Amino acid sequence: MKYLMLVCTDPSYTPGQEEGAPDVVDWLEEMNGKGVRLMGHRTRPASDATTVRVRNHQVLLTDGPWAETKDQIAGFDVLDCADLDEAIEVAAKHPMAWAGMIELRPFWPEEY
Amino acid sequence: MTSAVPDRIAGIYADGWSRIVATMIRFTGGDWDLAEECAQDAFAQALQKWPASGIPDQPLAWLTTAARHRAIDRIRRASTEAAKLREVAAMDLEPPYPDDSEIPDERLELMFTCCHPALSLEAQVALTLRSLAGMSTAEIARAFLLPERTLGQRLFRAKQRIANAGIPFRVPPAHLLPDRLPALLHVLYLLFNEGYGDAQKVRLCQEAIRLARVLTALMPDEPEAHGLLALMLLHDARRPARTDAAGDLVTLDEQDRSRWDQARITEGAEICERALRRRRAGPFQLQAAIAACHATAPVADQTDWPQIVGLFTELARIAPSAVVELNRAVAIGMADGPEAALPLVDAIAETGQLKDYYLLHATRADLLRRAGRGVEAADSYRAALELAPTDAERRFLRNRLQPH
């Protein structure tokens, strides 16, 4: 199964609890090596986002994210895992699971 | 032919439902709804046919075969896709089970999937009662005082989530078990506790015990599973004496011990002892050992309080919590007198963690009363009274506040 792994910051996180957290380079190496991570990247903050909408055939652009939320998404990865258990293990090994949070979104199956 | 057949079918249902559901989940490739529907249909057929034909020699094999036919039928009718139809044709070729003992027992897979931590706790509980205990949606709704529709939706969403999120149907591998087994035990204990406080919900206690028995049979080397079973048996043994004729709570020391179920106590104590001999003590084993100390004391005065203090000290070490500390203080109060326990209770109160927990105040009140400090005791009783959650508990506290 494929999962979108959204790597997010956690506004309620108090620093100092990440001792022993894994290194992101090790994580990338391990997950790329296993073929579990198909792709991914860090993303620039919400202040650099552009929101696109088409209304009445007109392209409307907004400077910034679509909602007035705190900047949360810091990056993403696409995982290909056997099941949710494997995806949880992969996510839990990512340093941002320790200092932020990670959301796993299953893909719709291909035939849809 | 005989009126005993429906009774025997009920017995086969109690033991066989979860096995057939589990087998059918595997057979349908994870379609929980279809699996349940087919299992239900198989039992409906049995109720119709068996009274005339007699109960087959291999009832589980009969039921599973009937459920499989139904599933193949349903998929065939619902599908127009060539690939799906080829799949169904292959399913049809699988030989029927000749013998009950040849049906793979996948109840453990079912238990771990129902209690997967990616499901909400309420979904875990509902799924466990439906798929494992075989309770109907209406029965579960009644047990939780919820509208049947709400519960039906909860079950529907939980099954959807298992499929959509990719929750696997399996026993977790060894490295995940230390997380997953406690989660499973927690759900069973939650079921038990939900039923323990309320005479209307006894069924939940019975199902929790029954499922714990299945679990210990399937995982004989997990001492905590045995610990949980022992704990529930020991609590359940005292049920008949927990309330008086008026429905009021009777404290442990005032319960009529002749009304305790001695067979259950013996069984629970033995299971607990065997589990502890494996030297991998866990929270459930220790709680069961404490319950056994109470249950095996012939009269309240002969309770082995120093032993209970030792068990709570160990429990506080491996599973620290303010509630455990409070219980440890109560035991110390019994072993060494109220003056020894009061500073411990005050220290817990100072942390503020249990300030809304009525038993903190009730415990303090009881210790003060026994220490002869009546005025302070009355203040604590009043604090407890304001926080007590049920009528029975409030009546008990009021009686203590105004001694006759």
Topology:
The complex is a heterodimer of chains A (about 110) and B (about 400).
Chain A (H helix, E strand, L loop, with lengths): L1 E7 L15 H11 L2 E6 L7 E6 L2 E6 L9 E8 L3 H9 L2 H5 L1 E6 L6
Chain B lengths: L3 H24 L4 H22 L5 H20 L3 H12 L13 H8 L6 H12 L4 H7 L4 H18 L11 H20 L5 H17 L4 H15 L24 H15 L6 H13 L9 H14 L3 H15 L1 H14 L6 H13 L3 H14 L3 H11 L3
Helix pairs in contact in B: 1-2, 1-3, 2-3, 3-4, 5-6, 6-8, 6-9, 7-8, 9-10, 9-11, 10-11, 11-12, 11-13, 12-13, 13-14, 14-15, 15-16, 16-17, 17-18, 18-19
Q: How would you describe this structure in keywords?
A:
heterodimer, A: 112 residues, Alpha-Beta Plaits, 3 helices, 6 strands, B: 404 residues, mainly alpha, elongated
Description:
The complex is a heterodimer of chains A (112) and B (404). With 112 residues, chain A is an alpha+beta fold. Helix content of chain A is 22%, strand content 35%. Chain A has one domain: 2-Layer Sandwich (Alpha-Beta Plaits). In chain A, strands 2-5-1-6 form a four-stranded antiparallel sheet. In chain A, β3 and β4 form a beta hairpin. In chain A, 14% of the residues are buried. The mean pLDDT of chain A is 90. Chain B is mainly alpha-helical and 404 residues long. Chain B has helices at residues 4-27, 32-53, 59-78, 82-93, 107-114, 121-132, 137-143, 148-165, 177-196, 202-218, 223-237, 262-276, 283-295, 305-318, 322-336, 338-351, 358-370, 374-387, 391-401. In chain B, α1 (4-27) packs across α3, α9 runs parallel beside α11 (223-237) and α10 (202-218) runs antiparallel to α11 (223-237). The interface between A and B is small, with 11 and 9 residues.
Biggest sheet record of chain B: none
Q: Figure out the total of helices of chain A.
A: 3
DSSP strand tally of chain A: 6
The tally of structural domains of chain A comes to 1
Q: What would you call the shape of chain A?
A: globular
Total of DSSP H or I helical runs spanning 4+ residues of chain B: 19
Query: What's the helical proportion of residues of chain B?
Result: over 70%
Task: Report Rg of chain A.
Answer: 16 Å
Biggest β-sheet of chain A, characterized?
4 strands, antiparallel
Instruction: Give the averaged pLDDT of chain B, no decimals.
Output: 91
CATH superfamily membership of chain A, which one? Dimeric alpha+beta barrel
Q: Please report the distance between the alpha carbons of the first and last residues of chain B.
A: 62 Å
Question: SSE order of chain A in H/E notation?
Answer: EHEEEEHHE
Strand neighbour order, sheet with most strands of chain A: 2-5-1-6
Output the structural class of chain A.
alpha+beta
Distance between the termini of chain A: 14 Å
